Fold this sequence. Notes:
By secondary structure, this protein is mainly α. The protein is built from seven helices and no strands.
Amino acid sequence: MPPDSYEGEADVTADASEEHDSHEDEEPEKSERTERSKPRTVPLVVVVVLVVAAALLGYLVGSPKNPLDNSADAGFARDMSVHHDQAVDMAMEVLPKIEDPGLRTVAYDMARTQQAQIGMMRGWLTQWDLPVRGGEPQMTWMAAHDHGLGPEGSVPETMPGYATEEQLDDLADASGVEAEILFLELMIPHHEGGVEMAEAAVALASEPYVVQLAEGMVVSQQSEIDMMESMLDERR
Length: 236
């Protein structure tokens, strides 16, 4: 074989050897790149713990905190509903007996407004998952308020302005102007007691919408007191 052919074969062999060496050098580099490109996985247990923790944190931060059973909000909603109940009963009792259209309108508006507020306050209790009747005596929530109905820090013995059974019987038996006068004589102190309770709620309640309703009651019932006092003076 000619010498040139040997040299050609040697060159081919050398080239093949170099190519083989270059492939061997590339393999570790590819392996390193593959290792770096692999996604790093988080153990499933860690993922579950993180998800549960995030959900719990979101619940604690975002969940509404309802008033407690012994809160001023709940006490006001319960006791003012009872107080309103009696006002509605008195208004409905006297409405057929009233001769004066002005007083009839006042009595009707009282019954309609206070009945609507009863529904609102009892709706709150349902929303708060609380019973209509609480576990504490009536008016306990007002002990922290300077109510002027007893020693400081005491619970009022009676609901302020609440008419007695005897007074309600007298209203049921009365007629004409006598019924109008008796209604006004009972409803004025009843409203004054309602204002006292509403002012306590403004001071003690924590829910903004409870405070807002109580503030509205103070304004509207004080206005009605002034109106009824004027009507009573006209009849005396």
